[in-house]
Design brief:
By secondary structure, this protein is an all-alpha fold. The chain is 72% helix and 0% strand.
Amino acid sequence: MATPPLHDAPGPRRQEGALAIFAIFLKLGLSAFGGPAAHLGYFRNEFVLRRRWLDEADYADLVALCQFLPGPASSQVGFGLGLLRGQGLAGGCAAWLGFTLPSALILFACALGAAALSGPWAAAAIHGLKLVAVAVVAHAVWGMARALAPDGSRAGIALAALAVVVLAGSMFGQVAAIGGGALAGMWLGRGQVVAALPLSGSPGGHKSAIVALALFFGLLLAAVVMPGAATASVTSIFGAFYRAGALVFGGGHVVLPLLRAEVVGNGWLADDRFLAGYGLAQAVPGPLFTFAAYLGASFGTGIGAAAAGAVVALVAIFLPGLLLVYAGLPFWRRFRSWPQAQHAVRGANAAVVGILGAALYDPVWTGAVLDGRDFAVAVAGFLLLAIWKWPPLAVVLSVAVAGALLTMPA
């Protein structure tokens, strides 16, 4: 008996205007607490389950590509979703701007002089938001495991990927896990029949991709040869933040030592103010890389200089990762249309499940679940998402408030 196709080919997909994409991602940027792993869960809920912009396999393909590349993975996935749905760069930029703008504005305002969050109420609120992340990431891992690791072989790949990430660490473990999963998928998929997949909605073309790749390396070379500066000028800010964004593998937290070396090491900002801003970045929705807006604004003495510094730092730290997604996506989608490559993609998709499972444990679980009450709140949030199908924003508010109330001292 012939082996059935891996999955059905996707049908034609409707395009969205840039303004509509911006509005959708703006809502997510206002409500997506919990860090990169949680953001991937929000994106899956919104675009795979609710809006059905793409299926589980396509979504996992995009996640796998962004895990391979340096930069902020969740922002790169959002940018890629906008590229595909908007059929071009305008859609990708609209998605990035909508998702990034809320947290960037909040941190910009904090840098202009708002008092740093402190005291028991602030600590309780932050703890409640961490419990939100546990529920969201657990829901994402559960749903993706059912879709992408439904049999023994792929579940084994997911488990092996989890072990690799835990043992090897975040910087190289993710790339090794996905590469190993792809090789395992090719070996386990020998002799299986695969469906021919069309290139649905691949933005740009190979020439545009090559231009983007050349721009990435050209700017990186300029940033690397740029000497350190005692003062934070526009060019020195761009160079420092572009270097950091281009050399980060493993998520937003990995950028902390790179930025600290650039900002504190050059004498642009005091260490205590740097760390206070990093603490604030944990408490706002959206990507952690918007910490760059806080830092860039802190270099200026007036509101105009602060705004210029924030914009330059923000664009510079995100730009390398977005250029790499734009350059890689056309080749990636052509690669996955080959029969043998589909076996590799199946294995890589299963490895993504393991990577998210590792992220669920550390840092999401270890940083949030401190006692039995925290465990109960996190499980309740998971059930609200998985069983009772509450909207994510309602779950965010409910779990955050419950976690904060339980954390407050009597």
